[in-house]
Amino acid sequence: MSIETSVIVPVVSQTRKPAGEISVPAAVLTGPVRESLLHEMVKSQLASRRAGTHATKTRHFVSGGGKKPWKQKGTGRARAGSIRSPLWAGGAVIFGPQPRSYAYQMPKSARRAALRSALAARHAEGKLVVVDALTLPEPKTKKMLECLAGLGVEGSALVVLAQNDDAVMRASRNLPHVKAILVGGLNVYDVLKHATLVVTRDALEQLAARLMEAA
């Protein structure tokens, strides 16, 4: 019994006409979709985006309270050393949040496995479109919409390029459900956030080579 080592993916032109095929390692597009790993990867990405600028004032930062409110003994009241005690109204906060970084990074092998799972999910759904090349005559939002319509893409789409194309990048900025990125910046969160993945042939070749390193 032979084990499938590669999968043939059809390549289309910008007008969705057949433009050949591309062979991709099966581990990249037909591997198991590990939902738990995808969940952890998305959590990691979103945690890294948190500002972490929340802050509360401890006794060190609350102004006032330098003088002891009353003498230690003889008043019948509880001992007090400062009106800025956390027990007093207007006082400090005990164990309040302080500025911090929420970022944490998963192992490289786990990050690659998560991206392979995300690609496998889109391929299984038939939402992976491989384009021979993707260019626009001018950086206009209308031209980008026409391009996506020609490819039969409806709804949100993530466009992945092998090299920077200023026209495509600028034309995608005003479309709230369309994002264009370079293959080096492809990540799990963006793949899962967009319904359709549009990848150029060159970008897919680079991506496959990267994901198969120490797979």
Describe the fold and architecture.
Helix 5 (166-172) links the parallel strand 4 (157-161) and strand 5. The strands form two sheets. A four-stranded parallel beta sheet has the order 3-6-4-5. Strands 1-2 form a two-stranded antiparallel ribbon. By secondary structure, it is α/β, with parallel strands linked by helices. The relative contact order is 0.18. The chain is built from seven helices and six strands, in the order E-E-H-H-H-E-H-E-H-E-H-E-H. It has helices at 26-29, 35-49, 108-124, 141-150, 166-172, 188-193, 201-211, and strands at residues 6-12, 18-25, 128-131, 157-161, 178-182, 196-200. The chain starts with 5 loop residues before the first strand and ends with a helix.
| First and last CA, distance | 22 Å
Number of helices: 7
Helices and strands, in N-to-C order? Answer: EEHHHEHEHEHEH
What structural class do the secondary elements suggest?
A: alpha/beta
* Cross-sheet strand order for the largest sheet: 3-6-4-5
**Which CATH architecture of the largest domain is right?**
3-Layer(aba) Sandwich
Strand content: 15-25%
Number of domains: 2
Using only CA atoms, what is the Rg?
A: 27 Å
Name the helicity range: 25-40%
Beta strands, count: 6
- Roughly what is the average pLDDT, rounded to an integer? 92
CATH first level of the largest domain: Alpha Beta
* Biggest sheet details: 4 strands, parallel
| CATH topology title of the largest domain | Ribosomal Protein L4, Chain: A
Q: Can you identify the CATH superfamily of the largest domain? A: Ribosomal protein L4/L1
pLDDT < 50 stretches: none
Structural shape: elongated
